[in-house]
């Protein structure tokens, strides 16, 4: 079946193919945009690729709303799966070492830590979502920190996608700058956090 063909899912990282697919979907395009974000959040793929593609296909505002909704649904589903089925299933998606490290960080630093890692993509979505479900994080706390924390990076990458449609050269420059900024900020934050742990 085409659904099980790895090539079928290449739209998750191929911006041009994603745009063509969105155009073919017609009125179902927004549903596809949300579904793509949910799918990529469960896979070991950078979710930023879908955010950029949604920006290219829908523009800054609509692309942001659709991407954010998809990210929130995926986060809630992963959290509830981890909370109800717990560790045996979670260990299939996330290494035990990463989970233990994440749990210790949450226990030591609490809510500010959850907000920080959502605003700066230091840890993949899958680790944060599943890790929060296994760790002693209240569902309400997880939801509001995710809602606030994921908004800035999602908006940034959706905006880059929108720029790539209107001014490709500027979009690519902004993407390179965003990647360098995230790497630098992540490295600086990690050093500061380790020093003050």
Features:
197 residues; mainly alpha; 9 helices; 80% helix; 0% strand; globular; disordered N terminus
Give a quick rundown of the structure.
With 197 residues, the chain is mainly α. The chain has helices at 15-25, 29-41, 48-58, 60-85, 87-93, 96-119, 125-134, 139-166, 168-195.
Explain what the structure shows.
The protein has about 200 residues and is mainly alpha-helical. The chain has nine helices and no strands. α4 (about 60-85) runs antiparallel to α8 (about 140-165) and α6 packs across α8 (about 140-165).
Number of strands: 0
Structural class: mainly alpha
Mean pLDDT: 76
Q: Classify the helix fraction into a percent range.
A: over 70%
């Amino acid at each position: 079946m085409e659904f099980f063909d790895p090539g079928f899912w290449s739209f998750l990282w191929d911006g041009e193919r994603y745009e063509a697919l969105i155009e073919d979907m017609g009125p179902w395009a927004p549903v596809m945009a949300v579904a793509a974000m949910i799918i990529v959040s469960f896979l070991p793929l950078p979710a930023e690729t879908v955010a950029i593609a949604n920006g290219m296909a829908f523009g800054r505002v609509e692309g942001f709303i659709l991407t954010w909704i998809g990210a929130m649904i995926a986060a809630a589903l992963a959290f509830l799966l981890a909370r109800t089925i717990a560790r045996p299933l979670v260990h299939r998606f996330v290494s035990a070492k990463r989970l233990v490290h994440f749990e210790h960080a949450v226990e030591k630093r609490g809510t500010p830590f959850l907000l920080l890692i959502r605003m700066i993509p230091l840890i993949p979505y899958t680790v944060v979502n599943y890790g929060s479900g296994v760790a002693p994080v209240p569902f309400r706390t997880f939801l509001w920190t995710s809602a606030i924390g994921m908004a800035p990076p999602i908006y940034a990458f959706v905006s880059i996608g929108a720029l790539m449609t209107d001014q490709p050269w500027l979009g690519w420059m902004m993407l390179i700058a965003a990647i360098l900024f995230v790497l630098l900020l992540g490295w600086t934050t990690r050093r500061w956090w380790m020093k003050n742990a």
